Amino acid sequence: MTEQPTLDVRNLRVEFPGRHGTVTALDDVSLTIRPGEILGVVGESGAGKSMTGLAVQRLLEPPGHIAGGEVWLNGRRIDQLPEPQMEKIRGREIGAIFQDPLTSLNPLFSVGRQLVETIRLHSDLSKPAARARAVDLLAEVGIPAPAERVDHFPHQFSGGMRQRVVIALALAARPRLVIADEPTTALDVSIQAQITALLRKLCKDHGTAVMLVTHDMGVIAETADRVAVMYAGRLVEIGPVAEVVARPSHPYTRGLMGSIPTLGARVPRLAQIDGAMPRLDAIPTGCAFNPRCPLVQDRCRRDRPDLRPMGAGLAACWIDPAAAATETAA
Amino acid sequence: MIPHTAPSALTVSAMTRRFDVSAPWLNRVIERKPRLFVRAVDDVSFEVPKGGCLSLVGESGCGKSTVARLVTGLYAPSEGSIAFAPGADGRPLSVQMIFQDPYASLNPRWRVFDIIAEPLRELKLRETEAEIADRVAELLKTVGLTASDGRKFPHEFSGGQRQRISIARALASEPDFLVCDEPTSALDVSVQAQILNLMRRLQDEMGLTYLFISHDMSVVRHMSDQIAVMYLGRIVEQAPTEVLFAHPRHPYTQLLLETIPNVTAPRRDREPQAGEVPSPLKPPSGCTFHPRCPQADSRCSAERPEMTAMPDGSRVACHRVEEMLARMA
């Protein structure tokens, strides 16, 4: 593949020094997103999926910091850029969409004013031109009567419409990368489908790379091209979404898939992963998943597995999936 | 699966709950604003069979949590009635509730032991401290925790474990009927599976009856015998679980089932239906779903559809379904 990835994260490590020692929130995370591609990042609370998005934008809460690895955006290394340069990248080259559309908009300004401010910050458009562009943006994200709605305030929009405004804001400067952190979690299902369809359309139309962070495997299965599964601050599996969903390689991914109640058939009992994810200050040695893993072997408790080719993607597991499959079947 | 002939544990008939959302008196006088009421629950009737599970599903603002609060007596109905069947001792079945957010529903300053012991002490279900301690230990074991966990505070537990504590507290007074308001919405999927499995096991072991509230169709399918779909305060369709999923009849139920992202059979090319839930302050005339309905005609905007019973046990409030039945007859 000769095409340069929009985002290239290499061996990223994020640490939070504290009174009781340093906590490693992200460890050895490597991933790439190509133009026009949607990478889903999935995992349970505390797995580090939002942290990955924040680290790429360098929005970590101090004392959290990038302690190792590299972040490349469009062929340019950005993890060591001084803050003033980074500020120009945020919004212009990386757009951000957060979970709660109500808190990401300023309630005191009309959406038009917020859009115009963002557009003018990142371009030299005049005020009227920026306003015309704001109306275009609102139309693009599917807001009816945009010329009228541009003067409305956030509270005058419904939840789904507000999230569309947030998407319009994220797209204002035509960024090459959009990081969407749980963009549909606060919305109802019928609205959720509208928003994911919109994200997919925008990604296709503009060749924008999207990092879609969510805990909902259903949203990933229907939206993303590839999926990265995270557990306790590390990637455990990454690969094409259809493959990972149909034939998960890592035991954690398999457990995650089994625990989702499906619309297909009613089962007497859901597959469950016993226990809970370890706290980041008490990650077990070896594979972090070993205390909950049904296939655990001695080696898993001792050595940490790295990502290696498995199935159609990569997975961090010592156990061969073919051998594991026969074992589970037996 | 519970047969439909099972005696009902709870009968709700024509229940309505209005809330006064008027502006303050002074504003009403000066600005000549009228009084304003929102019908959060509007003419809702259902029965829950003993030992069964009825689920209420719908999007935010459809009134499903208000129904939960009405059934547990936290609100009084404005109209209609709620009747629990008599239990073994002749008194009405006792009811308890499990709340959505296990972070907000447990007192952070109390030890888990005291949280679970409170109903025992308050209702004088056990005489001595030793008996209370035994009962709390037993409850903790029932929900998959250990007796020594009683000494800890809620913050020492994960979300899933906290929800187990809420369940133990709800079970302390030996209820026959549990109202569960989105008990797994705040939990991760793998933990959600643990809690759903626990609730199913408790139902089998203790013969509990559940009224289950959720917005998640796949969770509801896993848990319930009967499903009632709510839209803007009204039940638009009620059917046995398998019938509802095999033959969703109301256009809103079809929309809900259509839009759920499906992991096993993802539909990436779907064209989502436009539109959103209107404000319950100004519900549309006639059938409240008509502005979003692809099959709506002039009758739908003028006349409110009544519940029509179908031969396979489902009940639907839709003019189209009613007309189809009339043609077949």
TrEMBL record, chain A:
Gene3D superfamilies: P-loop containing nucleotide triphosphate hydrolases. It comes from Gemmobacter lutimaris. The keyword DNA repair does not apply. It is a peripheral membrane protein. Keywords: ATP-binding, Cell membrane, Membrane, Nucleotide-binding, Transport. GO terms for cellular component: plasma membrane. It is found in: Cell inner membrane. Its main location: membrane. Pfam families: ABC_tran (PF00005), oligo_HPY (PF08352). This is ABC transporter ATP-binding protein.
From TrEMBL, chain B:
It holds the Pfam family oligo_HPY. The keyword Nucleotide-binding applies. It is found in: Cell inner membrane. Residues 16-257 form the ABC transporter domain. It comes from the Bacteria. It is a peripheral membrane protein. Residues 265-300 are annotated as: Disordered. CDD domains: ABC_NikE_OppD_transporters (cd03257). One of its GO terms (molecular function) is ATP binding. Keywords: ATP-binding, Nucleotide-binding, Transport. InterPro entries: AAA+_ATPase, ABC_transp_ATP-bind, ABC_transporter-like_ATP-bd, ABC_transporter-like_CS, Oligopep_ABC_C, P-loop_NTPase. SUPFAM superfamilies: P-loop containing nucleoside triphosphate hydrolases. Its main location: membrane. Belongs to the ABC transporter superfamily. This is ABC transporter ATP-binding protein. The lineage of its organism: Bacteria, Pseudomonadati, Pseudomonadota, Alphaproteobacteria, Rhodobacterales.
